[in-house]
Amino acid sequence: MPIPTPPRPSPVVLATVCVLALASPATASAEEEVAAPARAVLEKYCIACHQGDKPDAGFNLPRLLERGSPATQRKPWRRVLENVEAGMMPPEDQPQPTDEEAELLAAWIGGEFEKADCDGPADPGKVTIRRLNRAEYDNTIRDLTGVDFRPADDFPSDDVGYGFDNIGDVLSLPPILMEKYMAAAREVASRAIDAGGEPPATLHDGEALSAVNGSAYHDDGQILASTGEVAAAHDFPREAEYVVRVVAFGQQAGDQPARMELRVDGRALRAFDVAAEEASPGTYEHRFRAPAGSRRVAAAFINDYYDPDHPDPGRRDRNLVVRSIEIQGPFRGPDDAPPPGHDLILVKRPATPEEYSDSATAVLERFLRRAYRRPVTGGEVAKLVRLAELARENGDSFERGIQLAVQAVLASPQFLYKVEVFRPVRDRQGKVVDQPNGVPLSDDEVAVRLSYFLWSSMPDDELFRLADERKLHDPEVLEAQVRRMLRDPKSDALVENFAGQWLQLRGLEVAAPDAGLFKDFDEPLRDAMRRESELFFAAILRDGRSLVDFLDADYTFLNERLARHYGIDGVAGDDFREVKLAGRERGGLITQASILTTTSNPSRTSIVKRGKWVLEQILGDSPPPPPEEVPALADDSGGPIVGTLRERVELHRSRPDCVSCHLRLDPPGFGLENYDAIGAWRDKDGDHPIDASSEMPDGASFSGPVELKAVLKGRKAQFARALTEKLLTYALGRGLEENDDCTVEDIVKAAAEDGDRLSRIVTEIVKSPPFLRRKG
Amino acid sequence: MSRLKITRRTLLRGAGAAVALPWMEAMAAARGPSPEEGPLRMAFFYVPNGVHMQDWKPKEVGGDFDLPSILEPLAPVKEELLVLSNLAQDNARAHGDGPGDHARSLSCFLTGVHPRKTDGANIEAGVSVDQYAARHVGSATRLPSLELGIERGAQSGNCDSGYSCAYSSNISWRTPTTPSSKEINPRLVFDRLFGGLGDGGSADDRRRRGLYERSILDFVQEDAQSLRGRIGMSDRRKLDEYLTAVREIERRVARADEDSERASDVATARPAGVPKDYAEHVRLMFDLLALAFQTDTTRIATFMFANEGSGRPYPFLDVPEGHHDLSHHGKDPAKQEKLRRINRFHMEEFARLLKRLKETKEGDRSVLDNSMIVYGSGISDGDRHNHDDLPVLLVGRGGGTIATGRHVAYTPQPLNNLYLSMLDRMGVPCERLGDSTGRLEKLS
Q: Which positions in chain A touch B194 (Cβ < 8 Å)?
């Protein structure tokens, strides 16, 4: 099958001048002189396997060529280039190209890459309207209303695309989520604004009750047959008065009724005689003050009585049965501070009924501007005021009306989605004129992109002010803002959400190492693992350190628990601190227990998962696809397999249809075999000494993690590019396109000129065209 | 202990509701089938990573067959059981898309459609059979359908070789581009089923609440409309999703009064949250599912024992290794034995639910008689990763339209043919679903 001639690079990619030059017949034929022999090489050695309905490795060469020059299809062609340069393709059992032929092909691909012109108009791409994800929703509610109770914990998880959960195209809104938005809006409004009336009551019963020295009583409540207590954990939203109501009865005996003591966090509040019996349980009520926070509210049985000799068998044993504990509140006393939303939202209140409408307008205009994250029109505010007035017409208070309006705003699409308005440029006839380099975002839209990138939350007053002043396209202002925002603790969100997903730390939460094999593994260790990686990332980000530290560093962050796990002495206590490392067995991402654990199976390490992690997260290289119906670690003999993991993996690799993938996948995984499935150092796997040597496809060989790190450091540029691509994907909330290649190159170059600082990459992303402009 | 207790209590209350309101003649008369017959339900249960087929497939075909070890727990409902062999989901195969079998298997299982390979933009599979049915019969009940599971969608990474995590965590697809997320928290399931019904206040309070809620829905719909004119085409697709979801809530608000007459007794036993213990979690979800069917709060449900490709260990079965890892057993008998233990455990839980549905009477029949419950996986043998001859069970007599108590071996054909036959019985007109080639014969 003949290979189609690749069309020339599309004019979008090239500067207008270049298009003219390329279009001249002389240049075209000069180009042909290089391209034709290169295609002949492809045809001779590659095409037989990589074509048709089921091309090897899912890689269809004719289709790729049809799509255009390598300059416009960099990712797949970069892989071709690597394979050819490393001699990995064609496979050994196939005819091999001569060195000249391989060079010719490489020169052609390389030459096409060079042609991409980054000085011309760059297509900034199009970001699909992004729904707030769970983290963004929680943070936005916190900053908008002042109430911070993680309402999104109840939401279904956000779908992930391109490795992140903030991708507009992927985030959907199923009806169940809309129900939760409605419920959360109601809850937030009632927590943020005190509208008088009865505060909410929470009933703890059934499973929500736990007993000390007690047990389940038939199908309802808990029985205390001897001294003990029944307790519920309750979240007190703020310091205020609360009423606790205990429904209980006694199984009476002796000469006094059962006695019950109410306790909060172990402190006795009040004691009751519980004279009620099972036929009609009593309700015992007490009003008290509680500071904000989660506390344990308990009903204790304090006068146990047992006399087996009592003449009346029905009066021998005294017990207390607690059916439920209800807590109502907060009740606001005259001296109590109002809920947080009063400062942030209720900026004006009507002194007389005549002022109702003016006050509602003032309150809601400010609220709507912050909730929609842009200036709002009088008409928009008026609609909302009408909603608030509906409450008054029905006999409710001003505050109730504002609650209602807040509730509606929090359920509206302009709050739930980060809206970027479609602003086509039109000609005189009103026809849309294509703008090759897009149009600038409004300053408000830039503020939103900035704040959700660095804080996973809404803009603050300073960003809103800068947007009002139209300063957010000014590179110096942007640089200053990035510096300010990274210093703000809210930028922990970037660590949690970007690093958490890039490094796949979130997987650590569900990792379940085999408790029989890894007796050391417990929750404090799990937390410490995550913490090390987060602190490490945060230090590199905030302290202007180099991204090379990710590959290898002579420091890390440890507490006693983790230091012990690593066999490092001299770290005492639960607090984390920066620790200078003596040896290099630790230091750098790939030596961190968090990553080593998430890339292991519960009972053993996984060479492939670890190799894949290094390839994808560090080198930005998606491993080539295995063949369909891949036989995983099976052999051809039909019998069970024996031997060490390494031997088995090598056996698997020996199959010709597996070898090409595993030549890339496995080496980094082998290099990490000195770490067990929870990241502790080991010299043996069972009885077998660890062999941690291997060779990268390009021939770089190493033995053990220290040498592997050196090899990876040698690929700093590749890592910088991979990391930039991930960060840019996260910042934009969309997958990257070929058009973004120039942006990535520019950012990597700028960072290299500034000591490879991670913070420089962040700053350059914020100043880049795809971040500040959009198509259409 | 306290966990078991609340479960029992939920059960009792549920049964109480059913007795007090012998599933509501008035209501049944108003919509659909006669009270003696009961409404027809359908449910789909999914296990990941395939099963150990050697211990699943009965040796004999027909009415006289022995239950292999994985199916043994179904002995009490063998008379209501059909084992269906040789049904396939061909679109779970690669067809040139390379690896990603787990993602494909799940998103294909109820759709019969080959999902688009992407880990980002433009996820697309097909409308799943449950949602297809919900579209037609869902308006008869408070919830058109119920999507349940144990594990949240994955939190990071692409989940399976370049497929978005949406594919390996969602079995139910409302539209080809909108998966229906599942609920994993029993407390929140309870709230969806029974929450907001019959909660107090005077008639005037209720009237005001209803008025406010409707006003909010009006406001947000107007807001969406005003936004529509200012955004691009692809953004409008997202906004349409929003509007569909809002309309569904509107419908529910309109029904609220009617619904609050039922189930108010059930509404007191509210689970506390997600149990730490896996088995307890599954049981609680099954209790709620049984209640939902019993009270006719929904007639359509899906349940996922875990996400596809799940690496969950089962330490309480003495299986500390991950499920997925074990499923690639490489014929190691020790691993196969552990796999069988996992498969059998899932079956035991499933059997417990079926028994309960069988014991819940509706007139002369049981809820199970009035159900069609599919149990299976989109992968046949987890070691071979094949998608023909899938493990598929159909339990329940479909309101007397299905002759159960048999093992039927078909000539190889699409699993979707079974779905087409089920839709017929639900009274849902459908000529083709996914890759269906016709109705499945030999069911009645």
A: none
The answer to whether B92 and B387 have CB atoms below 8 angstroms apart is: yes
Residue A543: partners with Cβ closer than 8 Å, 6 or more residues away: none
Per-residue pLDDT of chain B (444 residues; tens, 9 = 90+): 222 222 323 333 333 333 333 333 333 333 344 445 789 999 999 999 999 999 999 999 999 999 999 999 999 999 999 999 999 999 999 888 878 889 999 999 999 999 998 876 678 899 999 999 999 999 888 899 999 999 987 644 556 777 888 899 999 999 998 888 899 988 888 878 876 654 555 677 778 888 898 999 999 999 999 999 899 888 998 999 899 889 888 887 777 666 655 544 454 466 767 888 899 899 989 989 998 998 888 999 999 999 999 989 999 999 998 999 899 898 899 999 999 999 999 999 999 999 999 998 888 899 999 999 999 999 999 998 899 999 999 999 999 999 999 999 999 999 999 999 999 999 999 999 999 999 999 998
Measure the CA–CA gap between A702 and A719, rounded to whole angstroms: 18
Tell me the two tokens of residue A421. 């308005």
Cis ω on the peptide bond leading into residue A330 (within 30° of 0)? yes
Instruction: List the alpha helices (DSSP H) in B199-332.
Output: 203-228, 233-260, 278-294, 323-327
Joined together, the tokens standing for residue A266 give: 């172990």
Q: What is the pTM of this model?
A: 0.77
Write down how long chain B is: 444
- Judge whether A223 is closer than 8 Å to chain B, CB to CB: no
Distances (CA, A) of A714 to A221, A296, A708: 65, 55, 10
What does the block give as tokens for A495?
Answer: 């660590």
Nearest-CA distance from A667 to chain B in Å?
19
Q: Please, are residues A743 and A470 in contact by the beta-carbon 8 Å criterion?
A: no
Distances (CA, A) of A484 to A460, A481, A491, A724: 12, 5, 10, 21
E strands, B332-401, where?
Answer: 361-362, 365-366, 371-376, 392-395
C-alpha B57/C-alpha B380 separation (Å) is 11
Task: Assess contact for B166 and B153: CB atoms under 8 A.
Answer: yes
**Which of B:299-358 have CB within 8 Å of A?**
311-313, 315, 320-322, 325, 328, 330-333
**Residue where the block lists tokens 């007690």:** A214
Give A 539-568 residues with CB within 8 A of chain B.
none
Please check whether residue B45 is in contact with residue B305, taking contact to mean a CB–CB distance below 8 angstroms: yes
The tokens describing A225, both together, are: 């047959």
Pairing of strands B41-46, B371-376: parallel
How large is the ipTM? 0.78
- Cis preceding-peptide flag for A90 (omega within 30 of 0): yes
Taking an 8 Å cut-off on Cβ atoms, the answer to whether B156 and A506 are in contact is yes
Nearest by Cα to B181 from B189, B191, B195, B171 = B171
Token pair recorded at residue A39: 């295609």
Maximum separation of any 2 CA atoms in chain B, in Å:
69
Is B18 in contact with B256 (CB distance < 8 Å)?
no
| CB pairs A-B closer than 8 Å | 285
Residue B1 and residue A216: Cβ atoms within 8 Å?
yes
Map tokens 């959400």 to a residue. A497
Is any Cβ of chain B less than 8 angstroms from the Cβ of A199?
A: no
Q: Which residues pair with B44 in a beta bridge?
A: B302, B374
Say yes or no: B30 contacts chain A, CB-CB below 8 A.
no
Nearest to A163 among B158, B241, B322 (CB): B158
Kindly list the residues from chain B whose CB atom is less than 8 angstroms away from the CB atom of residue A167.
Answer: 120-121
Chain B residues inside the 8 Å CB shell of A501: 155-157
Distance in Å, alpha carbon of B59 to nearest chain A alpha carbon:
23
Q: Is B139 on the interface with A (CB under 8 A)?
A: no
Q: Is A732 exposed, middle or buried (0-12, 13-18, 19+ CB in 10 A)?
A: buried
Asked if residues B339 and B79 have their Cβ atoms less than 8 Å apart, the reply is no
